[in-house]
# Entry
Amino acid sequence: QVQLVESGGGLVQTGESLRLSCAASGSIFSINTMGWYRQAPGKQRELVAAITRDGSTNYSDSVKGRFTISRDNAENTVHLHMSSLKPEDTAVYYCVADRPSGSRTIVRYWGQGTQVTVSS
# Structure
């Protein structure tokens, strides 16, 4: 099992920045990809950004150039630095971690979520 604990959410104004952090614990030795999803009210959960163990990143088009994902493998943490925030970034942000289970299965773990609210 992997436990994920997010922190850093809050209320900011349009154009401001915010940094989310996620700490992983438990069976973390083979975690590969970590990332962030978000879910706004009435909308489906969507991928925001992801990063592999070797540092390869992937961003949704809506956050490219504004958000930066980073990872500290030694500390088992992943961060999401969000800048130039917009009201449409308002959502609950979830940390995720993917860990292989056997040769063909990947198990995805989810954090409890942290609220980000951007006021106009």
Observations:
- The longest strand covers residues 91-101.
- The mean pLDDT is 95.
- The chain has no helices and eleven strands.
- The CA atoms of residues 3 and 44 lie 23 Å apart.
